[in-house]
Amino acid sequence: MQYQIASYEDETAYKKLFYCVFPSLQNHAFAILQSRQLAEEVVSDVLIEVWKRRATLMKIENLRLYLFVSVRNGAIKKLQQEKKSTRQQPIYELKVELISEYIQPDAIVQLSETTQLIKEAVQQLPPQCKLIYKLAKEDQLKYRDIAALLQISVKTIDHQLAIALKKLAEKLSLPRKQKK
Hints:
Blueprint: H1 2-8, H2 11-33, H3 36-52, H4 63-82, H5 105-108, H6 113-123, H7 127-138, H8 143-150, H9 154-172
């Protein structure tokens, strides 16, 4: 997609990219801004900028990470403009809303009891742990991309995910694997 957009100014490829990444990016912006409207505005601005600068897209090594970092920066800038907060919160203190981009509205009604337990368990995780869990499991970012986005080490990502999975297993009463 990135190549088609950059090389051929392919609007269809751009629309496909837009619809593919918009929900994840909007959820990421919402975690910072706590406003769906502002989150949508920030993500739209970032994606419009991608189209405007499409000729330079091939210089971007990891477009998905680039988009997440751009949205994070745009959301923080928007927060400062809106003066919603007198102090800037560290990113690990931000509220994370878990919404899967793959769930259709009518399917939400059919969610199982287990899904509800998982959501409750995730909401009870410490803020940084919850954010890392969301980025790794919901948004499916690679550990090194999460580390770059949050400016922490990959080892911290691994440790926080281990904590999250342990707590989820305890909440669901799942047996844990024993180390050999």
